[in-house]
Amino acid sequence: MDLALRRAQPATTARHAVRALTCASCSQSNSRRFSVLNRQPPNYPGHVPLTKLERLGMAIGSSAMALINPYRADLIAQVGESTSTPYFIYRLRDAMLADPTGRRILRLRPRITSKTLSMSYLRSLPENTVGRTYVGWLDREGVSPDTRSETRYIDDEECAYVMQRYRECHDFYHSITGLPIVREGEVALKAFEWANTLLPMPGLSMFAAATMKPQERRRFWDIYLPWALRNGSRSKEVINVFWEEQLERDVEELRRELGIEQPPDLRAIRKAAREEKRRLKEIKAKGI
């Protein structure tokens, strides 16, 4: 009997060894399969590393939701970050590195907020200056420079700043073009940004034109999209403008230097359209 037990022990030990190796292999396979649970450490404060599958899911989901509600800045930010890599944000970074002012912006890394810009000082500037035009647009639209989301999903730390800079300069693009925060104005400006920066997110935003009213859609296709593509493609890359150093400059002079012409006043056009609609309605009511 002792001999039988001794003969059984090597076989049992062998089975245990095979089972242990199998379990170890399964553990390694599961670890690789669920690598999302072993996420890489962040590359900068606030950074959230994503797998390729997660990035794809975020791009699709946030794009669909942003199309439904184009005023959701958080969704638009997610679309911008998830679609800008691996190529487009590096191209924009390289465009900054190729420009003396762009290189200086990357070195100094200024931020555009109500703390870095004195709103009261900007309101004291002459009417024709860049700073007064900017703060006047902010006041008219009821917005603040403090509403831009922090970059979180771009892995390269320098490229993350490029995306942050692009976002924080967005209101300067609004002010220098005069486009308001209405669906038509936002989509027109996104078309301009796409032609100028080649980032996918502004290009995807143009699909929001399908959600416009028929009259708005006609204006966009006939007036504002041609303007946006023409001006965005021919003007200097606006990411290389050091806006903080242009505040006291004549706004028309800067527009000429950049090669940007103002589009027709969208607010005036919309107001005239509303008044015409009201007038026709009154005529129809009197006729009845």
From TrEMBL:
Pathway(s) where this gene product acts: Cofactor biosynthesis; ubiquinone biosynthesis
Subcellular localization(s) per the UniProt record: Mitochondrion inner membrane
Topology term for the membrane: Peripheral membrane protein
Cofactor(s) essential for the protein: Zn(2+)
Keyword annotations: Lyase, Membrane, Metal-binding, Mitochondrion, Mitochondrion inner membrane, Ubiquinone, Ubiquinone biosynthesis, Zinc
InterPro entries: Coq4, Coq4_euk
A single cellular component GO annotation: extrinsic component of mitochondrial inner membrane
Domain of life: Eukaryota
Annotated Zn(2+) binding sites: H170, D171, H174, E186
Pfam families noted in UniProt: Coq4 (PF05019)
Gene Ontology MF: a single term: zinc ion binding
Free-text function comment from the UniProt entry: Lyase that catalyzes the C1-decarboxylation of 4-hydroxy-3-methoxy-5-(all-trans-polyprenyl)benzoic acid into 2-methoxy-6-(all-trans-polyprenyl)phenol during ubiquinone biosynthesis.
Subunit details: Component of a multi-subunit COQ enzyme complex, composed of at least COQ3, COQ4, COQ5, COQ6, COQ7 and COQ9.
Descriptive protein name: 4-hydroxy-3-methoxy-5-polyprenylbenzoate decarboxylase
